[in-house]
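ok so I'm stuck.
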Amino acid sequence: MPESRGREGAKARAQRTSEVGPATQKLPSNPSWFVPVMCGLMIVGVLWVATFYVTSGALPIRPIGYWNLGIGMGLIMAGFLMATRWR
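replied:
not stuck anymore, here's the structure
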């Protein structure tokens, strides 16, 4: 029984998809401190906001009042922004 020749386009397409371009091979990775700092910022931010609510505003910094929420949310957002840059 004769073998089919196949299609040239399918072979070329399979070869193109199996090759990895040089631009994707050399993506820079993050430094080793990146992930711990990212997670730390998010955790500290959540703990800051939770502490403010649990102590009815007495902690972490009493004189600034509701700005404690801004600090906590700022820490969480900084961690989230770092997460978008994580490779």
